[in-house]
Amino acid sequence: MERRISCSSSSALFFVFLLLSWPACSVSSGADTLSPDRPLLDDGVTALVSSGGRFRLGFFGPNGSTNRYVGIWYNNIPDQTVVWVANRRHPLTTLSGNLSLTTNGTLTITGEDNTTAIWSSGSPASGLRNPVARILDDGNFVVQEAGSNGNDSNSFAWQSFDFPTDTLLPGMALGQKQLRTGAILNINLTAWMSSTDPAPGQYVFGLDVRGDPQLFIWSDTRPYWRGGPWNGRWFSGVPEVRDGADGVISFNFNKDHLSYRPVSQSSTIVRWTMNSSGQLQLLVWAEQSWIVSWYIPKDRCDQIFLCGPNSYCRSNISPPCTCLPAFHPRNQRNWNMLDGSDGCTRTTPLDCLNNTDGFFTQSDTKLPDTSRSTVVANLSLEGCRALCLSNCSCRAYAELDIRTASGCLIWTEDLTDMTVYQRGLGQDLYVRLAAADLASASASESSHHHSGRNILLTVVLPLAILLFLACVAYSIWRWKKRFSQIHYEAEDKDMELPLFDLNTIKDATDDFSPDNKLGEGGFGPVYKGKLGEEQEIAVKRLSKTSTQGVDEFKNEITLIAKLQHRNLVKLLGCCIQGEERLLIYEYMSNGSLDNFLFGEAQTVFLDWRARYNIILGVARGLLYLHHDSRLRIVHRDLKASNILLDKDMNPKISDFGMARIFGGDESESITKRVVGTYGYMSPEYVMDGIFSIKSDVFSFGVLVLEIISGKRNRNVGQSMEQSNLLGNMWIMSKEGKCLDLVDTKFGHLLSENEVLRCVKVGLLCVQKQPEDRPTMSSVLAMLVSVDNISLLPEPKQPDQADRHHDKDCKLGDSGMSSLQLVPYPDTATNIL
Ligand SMILES: *[C@@H]1O[C@H](CO)[C@@H](O)[C@H](O)[C@H]1NC(C)=O
Ligand SMILES: *[C@@H]1O[C@H](CO)[C@@H](O)[C@H](O)[C@H]1NC(C)=O
Ligand SMILES: *[C@@H]1O[C@H](CO)[C@@H](O)[C@H](O)[C@H]1NC(C)=O
Ligand SMILES: *[C@@H]1O[C@H](CO)[C@@H](O)[C@H](O)[C@H]1NC(C)=O
Ligand SMILES: *[C@@H]1O[C@H](CO)[C@@H](O)[C@H](O)[C@H]1NC(C)=O
Ligand SMILES: *[C@@H]1O[C@H](CO)[C@@H](O)[C@H](O)[C@H]1NC(C)=O
Ligand SMILES: *[C@@H]1O[C@H](CO)[C@@H](O)[C@H](O)[C@H]1NC(C)=O
Ligand SMILES: *[C@@H]1O[C@H](CO)[C@@H](O)[C@H](O)[C@H]1NC(C)=O
Ligand SMILES: *[C@@H]1O[C@H](CO)[C@@H](O)[C@H](O)[C@H]1NC(C)=O
Ligand SMILES: *[C@@H]1O[C@H](CO)[C@@H](O)[C@H](O)[C@H]1NC(C)=O
Question: Any signal peptide, and if so, which residues (predicted)?
Answer without folding.
Answer: 1-26
